[in-house]
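Hi R.,

Here are the chain sequences for the assembly we discussed:
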Amino acid sequence: MSKPITVLVSIDSNSLLLGARHFKNYLSTLTENYNLNSIVEILETGSFGDYGRGVLFLVLPDNVMYSVKSEADIEMLVMEHLLKGRRVEELIVTDFDSAARVEATETTKEERIVLRNAGSIDPRNLEEYIALDGYQGLAKALRLTPEDVIEELKKSNLRGRGGAGFPTGLKWEFTQRVESDEKYVICNADEGEPGTFKDRLIMEGDPHSVIEGMIIAGYAVGASKGYIYIRGEYFESVASLRGAISKAYEYGLLGQSILGTNFSFDLSVRLGAGAYVCGEETALIESIEGKSGRPRLKPPYPPVSGLYGKPTVVNNVETFACIPPIIDKGASWFKSIGTASSPGTKVYSLCGDLVKRGIVEVPMGTSVRDLVQKYGGGVPNGRTLKMIQTGGAAGSFIKPEEMDAQLDFDSFKKYGASLGSGVILAIDDTHCAVDIARNLMEFFAHESCGKCAPCREGTHVIVHILDELSKGRGTSEMLNQLYDISETMEESSFCGLGQSVPVPLRSILDRFKDEFLAHVNSPQCPVGACKFEKSTKKKR
Amino acid sequence: MPKIKSLEELMKIKENAMKGLKMRDSGKRGKVIVAMGTCGIAAGAKDTLRAIVDSLEEKGIDDVAVVQSGCFGLCDVEPTIEVHLEGSEPIIYGHVSPTQAKRVVEQHIVGGKVVGDLIVKRGEL
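And here is the predicted structure of the full complex:
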């Protein structure tokens, strides 16, 4: 029997750290004490896509969003709103507009395909997913031939959301055409790109959308086994996916003869151990096979020879989540959203110096300016924006005057702004370009797997040079060296990790050349972020 | 849970689950507001609320939302409820016991006829 009032609690890794579970339990204790439990239902849901404002509680059907920071806030919510029906004005999140269910103002309206259910359903309840068209895409796919499913996907022009943007339909077709006794479907959930957290929120908020996408992939390419390779630190996502998989088995959506057909598909979760390089598909496959995560020589690509040497489809979490609605609603619907070369939507992780950090899903082709100013709310504390890194650690840096760049898979060619995994990292004027570059390159040096020399040595030399620069011991010759190493790495690194390091490095060097030179010629860092050892020695 | 073996079975689950979800969101056709001030609760508004929800469910009505609010300011006729269906003026009923609440659902929400003897006020407050 449903209850008249529902309180949705946003449970994700961030809100858990803020005590979401504790607040939720306290709320249920209080509702019990006040004898409200026959009329109030408390449900957990995924992230509402908003950070930094405490744990969010959405009271329905009144549609009021509360930000809770203490037990006292919960008491107030119960005493005032639940018991007396009076809104607690001081706790209401007024400008909350990134959740689809809250009336969005015209300017910050989102288009939600991937996150269609996140924040509105209970992710642990399979029936709620089914209620909102869940598994309709699978049901439809099973009535088509595998070739027709792939044809529809090719027509939709869906491109992989992991960063490279390879057409998903083509990838599936390659896999389908190879004759083999066994094929595999792998979901790359090893979300390791610094600043990216979209996949986590998709898996926590709507795990079945990923699972359904994978089952459809299995049917289309002729695979009977799938793996979700997920980073081990994503405790909530792992629990959410494992729970969802066992539910899907219970309802007969996984396992033998799915939906009464003779198609069978098994799915299980594999945990990663925290290596960035394992996000690279061949290294990921090695890792699933139980070996250490080192990339393989390509070609052959995974569609021909992947897991255990069998044809394998590897797609990103977000890509799989796009698939059920495409099959259900058709390719032409999907193509009506986004740009011609990159249809659909993209989920962005907004982070750095922004007022509203979080995730938003908007059509492809949305400008960086809109993402930073409209959705991100601009830079806080009256500071000025200095640069934006788009696409993750391996993405490019752009200056504020280049913010009109419209992000899609071709925007790097057009504007020098990469889409990558959809990170928008805003950096304000308290940060120094050299310091930012050094930090970033330290990450790559740490994560380089060491298999090939250009990447292993290159990243370390880059870090050394940037270290010298930030300590005031640099020379202008060093800047040229950075360009040289970039070129070598780009052309001779074994895998995508080393090949993509030059993208952020060169873009920041090109755009902030003056600042790099200032570290060579001036007595101190222009921003004051780097501590020059030379100058401090002189003072003594 | 028995396994889903056909599209029909999937659709059946979808329909049932949809009802639950719609209930949570604001209804499309209208809403029933139950005054849950201290006065209302003292006069039994919680039982009234429960009765409204139950009888809506019984009748399979899922496009009318049940919302609670504070005191309407009509403390002497509590429990009070307001029925606001789309396209018609809101009606406030007073002394709505669980039995009367069932009548309101049957006559007003299902039948479209205002329950004359319970009316306290017509139109906006």
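Chain A has four domains: 5-96, 126-335, 345-428, 433-539. Residues 433-539 of chain A form a domain with the de novo design (two linked rop proteins) fold (CATH 1.20.1440.230).

Let me know if anything looks off.

Best,
T.
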